[in-house]
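Sample intake sheet
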Amino acid sequence: MSSLELFVEKELGKPVLLNLQHIHTGGINNQKGRDYEDFFQLFKAFELASQNIDHSKHLLSCQELAFIDDICYWDLEKSVKHNFQAKNSSGSAADWTSEITTRCERQTIIDTKFHKIQESRNYLLVSCERKKENNLQKIPVSLQPLNTCIFFPYFKNLVELLDQTELKSYIELLIESNDNTQVDYAAMLILGVLKAGTSQDIKSIFEQACSNAHPNPFKKFRKEEATSQEIPDWIKQIVTTSSNNTTYRLQSNRVYLSYETGFEVSASLDLILKVPVSKIQEITNIKDLAMFFMFLTSSELDVDTSLDSSPLGGA
C-alpha cells in the first residue's frame, strides 16, 4: 500500500480505506463527464497562468487518491489545497448529500494531517446554477465556509468555452494576440498536456506545451532565445515600397502586416526564417506577401504541410 493508504487505514480504519480505494477505482474507470472536468481544468490552468504568481508553486492534478478527487489545485504559496468533485448534472446526482459531507470531512483530515496543508477547501462543482443555490442550503454549518458548492457551466465544445467565459481573455494576455486561430491553437496545446493526466505545476504545464509547440505562442513562458531575431529585410523592402500604407511589426515572435483598411495578417517568424530563397524570389508585391502569410498561418496547425505546396508555386 502507498503511504497515504497506510495513513488512512491507521487514522480512519480499514472500512474507510476500502471506501477510498473504491472511489479512486471508480473515478479512473469513469469517462462520463470527462469533457466537463477537462474544460474546468483548462479554464483553471489559464486563470492561474495569467496571474502574477510563482507558477512553480501552483499545481493542478486530476483523479488523485482522495475522497474529493476529480480535480485538485494545490496553492503551495499559501498552503491551501482546493479539491473539486464535479457533477455535470441538474438531477439528484448533483445533490449535496450526507455522503458528500463525509467525504469532505475525510478529505480535510488527509490534507491537513497527511499532506500537512494549512487549509483544505472542498467544492461540489455543478453545471446547474439552480442546483448550486439549492445545495448551499444543505451544507452543514460546521463545514462552512471551507466546504461549499460552486457553479461552472457545461460547454459542448471549446468554442463555447472561449466565447462564454474569461478563458479567451486569459489566453490573449499570455500570447499577446487576439487572433482567433492563435487563441484556439494555444487552448488545444494546454488541453493536450492536461489530458496526459499527470500532476504538474503551472510552470511545467506551459513549458511542456512550449516544447511541443511549433511555433510556440506563449511569450510569458518562452525561454529566451540565444540570439535576437528581426523581421527579414526582404519583407521590410516589399512593405516599404508598397503604396497602400501597409505597416509591419514584430510581436511575440510573429510578424504582422497591417493595412489601412484595418485588415491584418500575421505569420510565425520561425516559419518565415525557414522559407527557401527560391520562394522568397517569387514574392514580389504586398499581395503575394499577404497570401504567403496566410498560407504559413494555416500550416502552423498542420505539421505535414510543406513549403513546396505553397500557392505561390512548387511541386
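Comment: Confidence is low (pLDDT under 50) at residues 303-315. The CA atoms of residues 235 and 289 lie 8 Å apart.
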